Structure prediction request, 161 residues.
Amino acid sequence: MRVRAARSAERAAVDALHQREWGGPYVVAHDTRHDVRTLPTLVAVDGAAVLGALTYRTDEDGLEVVTLVAASPGGGVGTALLEAVTSIAAEAGLARVWLITSNDNLRALRFYQRRGMRLVHVDRGAVDRARRLKPEIPLVGEDGIPLHDELVLERRTDVEG
Prediction:
């Protein structure tokens, strides 16, 4: 498996992953609607097969992971993509890699914390607000948990721990 910048020929495969995971190319986080097709994208590939994708954006606040999806979870694809984007942030002198997940996504919370990310903020009602921009967001999420809040996790690149 290799991780690298996505190529235009892989657009359909990346779009299919986003369709499966988020119902299309639009993701709402921190009151912003992102079109992930316009963001820098890393892919994990094995030959011509796209195993996963990560989209991100940068600003003065660091590098935000907007989406991370693996074709088949549990094979190290997400870890490889997260490590690659953390290296990109560190090389660019950005102090942190951060992301948002929803309060129901216990699998993601486990995944990110086991890879050195820490919970730094809870935005109460953020998912309720996001439904104004993306009405198809369900009221109840994974494991029957009511879906209301965004959880912000980060990994500092400028300090240990």
